[in-house]
Amino acid sequence: xxxxxxxxxxxxxxxxxxxxxxxxxxxxxxxxxxxxxxxxxxxxxxxxxxxxxxxxxxxxxxxxxxxxxxxxxxxxxxxxxxxxxxxxxxxxxxxxxxxxxxxxxxxxxxxxxxxxxxxxxxxxxxxxxxxxxxxxxxxxxxxxxxxxxxxxxxxxxxxxxxxxxxxxxxxxxxxxxxxxxxxxxxxxxxxxxxxxxxxxxxxxxxxxxxxxxxxxxxxxxxxxxxxxxxxxxxxxxxxxxxxxxxxxxxxxxxxxxxxxxxxxxxxxxxxxxxxxxxxxxxxxxxxxxxxxxxxxxxxxxxxxxxxxxxxxxxxxxxxxxxxxxxxxxxxxxxxxxxxxxxxxxxxxxxxxxxxxxxxxxxxxxxxxxxxxxxxxxxxxxxxxxxxxxxxxxxxxxxxxxxxxxxxxxxxxxxxxxxxxxxxxxxxxxxxxxxxxxxxxxxxxxxxxxxxxxxxxxxxxxxxxxxxxxxxxxxxxxxxxxxxxxxxxxxxxxxxxxxxxxxxxxxxxxxxxxxxxxxxxxxxxxxxxxxxxxxxxxxxxxxxxxxxxxxxxxxxxxxxxxxxxxxxxxxxxxxxxxx
Amino acid sequence: xxxxxxxxxxxxxxxxxxxxxxxxxxxxxxxxxxxxxxxxxxxxxxxxxxxxxxxxxxxxxxxxxxxxxxxxxxxxxxxxxxxxxxxxxxxxxxxxxxxxxxxxxxxxxxxxxxxxxxxxxxxxxxxxxxxxxxxxxxxxxxxxxxxxxxxxxxxxxxxxxxx
Lengths: 578, 163
Description:
Largest sheet of chain B: 5 strands, antiparallel
Number of strands of chain B: 9
Strand order of the largest sheet of chain A: 3-2-4-5-7-6
Helix content of chain A: 25-40%
Strand content of chain B: 35-45%
Helix content of chain B: 25-40%
Strand content of chain A: 15-25%
Number of helices of chain B: 4
Oligomer: heterodimer
Structural class of chain B: alpha+beta
């Protein structure tokens, strides 16, 4: 079969089973768009800004486990995609981004819409390619998908000059079944000796903790994690990226840890003697002050990426491998082991944890005459029965979502954890809705974040992706304001906008339904109304308490034992450590 | 501590910048870097000299190993190795200083590879500290220019860095 470069790219996408291609056309990719025009297998989703193409593809990948695929033109199309590529890179999301490039003959001449995409994206991709010959396209595409989806996943950029996709140059096409890269062989099983050492340590623990993260979601190891946690009867905490990998409503779950984690999760980490870290990377938002992180604990760390091990926190027993395989190896070893965890010691540990739970660290003022953002998320959780896919932007609302929407399943919580990209939520919701048209999808956002990709309301209409936008509108960049209140004597420098659009009118202008909610008693009816409108995108603008802060909080540079709690009157709690 | 990291890398456009970019992005220092294709033209061999404590060097080698273009690498500081650097030095000469510079060069086993009425170019190979010693032994004002390759190195014995 003889095909042009443009046709080959599209054919490769079909071979990879790509459902959706998120993109935006332009000069350097016109040949490619013409090839797309002639087929129906790969559905192109036209976004309104390239950043949104990457976020939508990224969220599609997060919700399905399949790689997200993006097509953008050269120059500004490519640079607009960079934020989304970096977002995916920080959270290890499999993604293939095809960018157009100026023709080979003019590369390096500062041609119109030329930018060195391979150079610009080098620090924020797992790998990238510049295709220099039409005969190399098929193999490069195969390699791109292979690299993006194996090992520790990540985004891969394939930069294709316009002349390489010329419809008049046809070459024989065959998609390689397999591809081997001699310099790339991701780890699989864990080292049996290390697994034995880890299991010995775990079964002798006095105050054990399981600290698991996004790697469990990416590695499809939720079932194994649940089985092991229940078998051992250990307490478990999830990172922001790991929420849902272990059911949040289970009694062994002590909540999220880290900067806005629960009192019980952070203190349990601090007091623990054995920590089993699974698919996590000891991010600074999790560890707080490194010198004071888990001072009493020996740490076992399972990760697919050797570079994640002992990067910030020195661990005692590293296990490099796929989380799913390693957990199965460990489960087998635990079941065969003569020793069982001490019931007596664990009971004492659970007593201590339950005492910390009495602090009710997430409690907020339920009698307020203003709408509390936490109450909105709680109602959303109830109305959707905890079954919705929730995307979020970045800031206070993101933390409220993580704290108050209790995820019982993996891949339901879609947020930019590592890069913290405002503008992620709405395009992400569109990507998730395309992946799961039958599921409820809500985007929890704020009036600042939503404006960073608001133009995607048009995309939501065009592709009939009815998502519910939960706008927690406090007329501030809430998290910035909170830090300014705590650290800058309430000098709110540039953290509010003098002009905020009428979101109801805006949503209607884009062809959607807009609802404004100003009173606490209207929260539930508004949500009920929104979710009853099955085939409409609904923008609900909740006017919330301007002064609400996210608690608990570990301020930057402090340890887990130095949490700031909300000082609710009459809360019976031992505040010695708080 | 000083470490010499020896790297086999795909001989492809951009491969060098991936290594250099990694060091600048993560704040590691590069003391020197030499690179050239090997007997297998699809591969280049790179010798990179860096400094850092044990944790930093461990991260450097792990991060380098993550780069898809890197096929293999070894930290030569962990093994017995030989190390050579090439230096060319151009010095001013006059009838009074010519013999003295020639003698000094001979002591350091240098070779004079270019001569004019007023200058020598001296070629010298050896461990980096030997080259430092020679430069220090020269009268500073006589040096017109120096160029050094940076160290290249390989392990002693029959084992080597190859596919």
